[in-house]
Design a protein that fits this description.
The structure holds two protein chains of two kinds. By secondary structure, chain A is mainly alpha-helical. Chain A has one domain. In chain A, about 80% of the residues lie in helices and about 0% in strands. In chain A, helix 7 packs parallel to helix 10 and helix 9 packs antiparallel against helix 10. The termini of chain A are far apart. Chain B has a domain at about 50-85. Helices cover about 80% and strands about 5% of the residues of chain B. Chain B has four helices and two strands. A two-stranded antiparallel sheet of chain B has the order 1-2. The chains are: A mainly alpha, B mainly alpha. Chains A and B meet through helix 1, helix 3, helix 4, helix 5 and helix 6 of A and helix 1, helix 3, helix 4 and strand 1 of B.
């Protein structure tokens, strides 16, 4: 499946760069929205049909919140380390990581609060994170584990990467992935400005 | 964002109540696979058609790839370290 995912994105990029009329580009958001609604509806049906999953979620209790916490701290720590090597300061690099894959908001927010250059870095970083997630989720699910397969997508684990997570791990992990995405999405608008305020 | 949640919750409710005929539900996996490919193709078109992104890829693309990889590795490593605390519900591995 990851081969098909990679191929469809690559074909899309080629079509967008060379074939697609510019007038049609304005409708891409609508196509993606409708596709996501359809997709998420069927992911929901799969989740709803496995009632045992909800019972198990209660069993996990507070521990299930350690996943978004781990993703948040790990993402920011990872980009801070990379940023120090690349010559960014801690606040800038942390803010890029705190987009958690939500490229539209983090890019705009950072462009607005810091600079267009860092905003563009954040935008592309989080686009790339989402693309990498599509390829990595099936591999991580098989080689490392289902819970770890939630992590590459960050906040997108509640929408765009949720179907891939669900397909490779099952409805039980999909519920945890959705919760992870919701919590991370809620944190982005707060954490990005806070990190940008750091004086170092 | 709220509409995404609405469709997901609608699916969960209809799935839980077994309202959708089994004949249609059995095709759920195929529906998800093909709609995902269409969405990703469309996303790719958006990337290829945006001068801002394609030009950005050449000038600052390496930094972005490094940041994205670092964010994924960081979150993967930390969740892996936390796994012993997360991974059990009533003694059962996830």
């Amino acid at each position: 499946m990851s081969g098909a995912i990679f191929l469809s994105v690559a074909l899309g990029i080629a079509a967008g760069a060379f074939v697609m009329p510019e007038a049609l580009l304005a409708y891409l958001g609508t196509v993606i929205d409708i596709g996501l609604w359809f997709l998420l509806f069927w992911v929901g049906v799969d989740i709803g049909r496995s009632r045992d999953s909800f019972t198990k979620l209660k069993d996990y209790g507070w521990r299930v919140f350690l996943i978004p916490l781990g993703v948040a701290v790990g993402s920011v720590a990872g980009t801070v380390v990379a940023g120090l090597i690349l010559g960014y300061n801690i606040g800038e690099a942390g803010a890029v990581g705190a987009g958690f894959g939500w490229y539209s908001l983090s890019g705009v927010l950072i462009s607005e609060l810091h600079s267009i250059r860092l905003g563009t870095v954040a935008f592309i970083t989080n686009v790339v994170r989402e693309l990498m997630a599509f390829v990595l989720i099936p591999i991580v699910a098989v080689k490392i584990g289902p819970i770890e397969a939630i992590t590459p997508g960050g906040s997108t684990s509640m929408d765009t990467t949720l179907p891939v997570i669900s397909r490779y791990t099952g409805p039980e992990t999909a519920i945890i992935a959705f919760l992870n995405g919701v919590l991370l999405t809620a944190v982005v608008p707060v954490l990005v400005p806070l990190l940008l305020r750091l004086p170092f | 964002m709220w509409l995404y949640m609405l469709f997901l919750v609608a699916g969960i409710l209809l799935g839980a109540k077994d309202i959708i005929p089994q004949k249609i539900v059995s095709k759920s996996s195929g529906f998800q696979f093909w709609s995902l490919l269409i969405i990703l193709f469309t996303m790719g078109v958006g990337i290829g058609g945006s001068d801002e992104i394609t030009e950005g890829f050449y000038s600052i693309g390496l930094h972005s790839v490094a940041f994205a990889a670092a964010a994924i590795i960081g979150s993967l490593v930390l969740v892996r370290l936390l796994r012993p605390l997360i991974g059990r519900g009533r003694g059962e591995p996830l």
